[in-house]
Design brief:
mainly alpha; 76% helix; single chain
């Protein structure tokens, strides 16, 4: 039973990692192509958001690898990453 928990958790983490990579690519595409984002966003704010988005794929990839050690550790990391993205972040100019 334990091995199947690890595999299912790793599959879930892999899915989150792929989604995180795609969202990060989409952000960088929008940031580089003028007219896709609001003019009110400065270059520095765009860089801040881009760095913030990198936490997702990296964190999810690390959590996915942790799934092979313990499914519960990986699930805890997934919850922590979701809380990180739900918490409001302010860019200090």
């Amino acid at each position: 039973m334990r091995m199947s928990q690890d595999i299912v958790t790793a599959f879930y983490g892999g899915t989150l990692t792929v989604i995180g990579v795609l969202v990060t690519f989409m952000w960088h595409y929008c940031h580089r192509n003028l007219g896709l984002l609001t003019d009110a966003m400065s270059q520095e704010q765009g860089i801040f958001v881009g760095k913030h988005y990198l936490v997702g794929p990296i964190g999810y990839a690390v959590s996915t690898l942790c799934a092979f050690i313990s499914a519960w550790i990986a699930i805890s990391l997934f919850v922590a990453l979701n809380a990180f993205f739900l918490w409001p972040h302010r860019h200090k100019a």
